[in-house]
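Task: sequence design from structure.
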């Protein structure tokens, strides 16, 4: 679907200002709606069609790396609670779990040992105890090295290089045929712009070797839009929708505010009351960004061939412009059968605190506070008749429905406050409710 001409002009003005103020030799940006790149533009010295020029993605490559790890998990070849030692033995970081590495909570040093990996190839990682900079699982600490190790784990599990695994199992199945480890065909030259003049300096390009999963890939705007559609829920058979959603749930929080939150290979940020998921990327000569509003079903991207200068908030700002100019029209509501008898829905009480159980779209149930804040979660039915929490306080917990009581972990919800006919833990005073 195309955008209104007025919307396109607003987006173009935004991108033009970003290219000029950021002194980007070239900048390509676009927006995704209904899974398609519905608008894009190129500014500066960029060949047409601008959406088919490759730029280096930098750390957006980490999202692809995470997908290759999660595919192994979904196949039953590993568990995210496994330690690195179980799959990549012999490192001083062997006690770190895969979840910790994927979410940057493993306390692993930010960069690989040796020379600056973003400008020189790293064929091996001579690790030492110095690469353990923080206790595992204690706090967020962004680590390129951690994703280098995850990529090597994938390579050993599959018996071929991470580049090849990513291409065969993620990029080609998603139709990202113009995403490659090295520039191929029409590709932008990376530049540094002098801080005090308008001169540029070409930046070197190389294969990052074992650190490739942290920032190697090159892609076009059209291919990056496909990755955006993937994060919006179109897994294309590469990952299940549930696993894609799992990627977007925050696991680590950066209280400095620089990164926001981090899921499994994706950043998660709050922007103007919206939750956005995606990733930024930088390599010498290149800056990139991809951000998705899963609730709105939209994504925006930016690719520039400059080492520094581009406003990293550009994709999020494009999403805000799009939302204001052409807000998504939600699907029509229509009646649907309740997944449970209506007699089980409505008010319930945890002690004296009122809650309500509702049927919500998708065959789900929602339990939350009634008229006041309270613990809340959505639940999905299991084959055995129980329900599992999907989010919120009760994520992963089992809900058992009974006409007299709802049992959820140690919580017992009753039809009336402290119902003496229900199995309330600790019992109910025989005198009942009274005025002392």
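Answer:
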């Amino acid at each position: 679907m195309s955008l209104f001409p007025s919307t396109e002009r607003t987006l173009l003005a935004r991108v033009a200002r970003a290219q000029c103020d950021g002194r980007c030799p070239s900048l390509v940006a676009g927006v995704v709606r209904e899974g398609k790149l519905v608008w894009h533009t190129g500014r500066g010295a960029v060949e047409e069609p601008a959406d088919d020029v490759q730029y280096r993605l930098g750390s957006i490559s980490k999202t692809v790396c995470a997908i290759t790890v999660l595919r192994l998990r979904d196949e039953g070849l590993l568990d995210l609670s496994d330690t690195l030692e179980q799959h990549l033995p012999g490192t001083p970081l062997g006690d770190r779990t895969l979840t910790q590495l994927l979410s940057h909570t493993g306390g692993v040093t930010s960069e690989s040992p040796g020379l600056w990996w973003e400008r020189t190839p790293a064929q091996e990682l001579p690790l030492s105890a110095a690469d353990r900079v923080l206790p595992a699982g204690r706090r967020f600490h962004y680590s390129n090295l951690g994703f280098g190790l995850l990529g090597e784990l994938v390579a050993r599990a599959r018996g071929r290089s991470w580049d090849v695994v990513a291409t065969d199992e993620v990029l080609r199945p998603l139709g990202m045929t113009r995403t490659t480890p090295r520039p191929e065909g029409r590709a932008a030259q990376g530049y540094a712009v002098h801080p005090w003049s308008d001169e540029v300096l070409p930046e070197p390009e190389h294969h990052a070797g074992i650190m490739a999963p942290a920032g190697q890939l090159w892609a076009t705007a059209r291919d990056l839009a496909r990755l955006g559609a993937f994060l919006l829920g179109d897994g294309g058979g590469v990952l299940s929708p549930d696993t894609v959603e799992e990627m977007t749930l925050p696991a680590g929080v950066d209280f400095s505010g620089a990164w926001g939150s981090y899921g499994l290979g994706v950043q998660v940020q709050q922007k103007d009351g919206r939750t956005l998921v995606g990733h930024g990327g930088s390599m010498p000569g290149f800056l990139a960004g991809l951000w998705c509003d899963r609730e709105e079903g939209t994504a925006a991207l930016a690719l520039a061939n400059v080492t520094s200068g581009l406003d990293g908030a550009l994709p999020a700002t494009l999403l805000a412009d799009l939302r204001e100019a052409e807000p998504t029209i939600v699907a029509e509501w229509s009646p649907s059968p309740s997944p449970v008898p209506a007699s089980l829905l409505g008010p319930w009480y945890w002690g004296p605190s009122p809650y309500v159980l509702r049927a919500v779209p998708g065959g789900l149930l929602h339990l939350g506070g009634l008229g006041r804040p309270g613990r809340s979660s959505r639940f999905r039915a299991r084959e055995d008749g129980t329900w599992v929490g999907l989010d919120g306080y009760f994520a992963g917990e089992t809900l058992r429905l009974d006409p007299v009581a709802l049992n959820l972990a140690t919580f017992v919800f009753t039809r009336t406050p402290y119902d003496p006919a229900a199995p309330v833990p600790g019992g109910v005073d025989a005198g009942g409710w009274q005025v002392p």
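Residues 342-414 form one domain.
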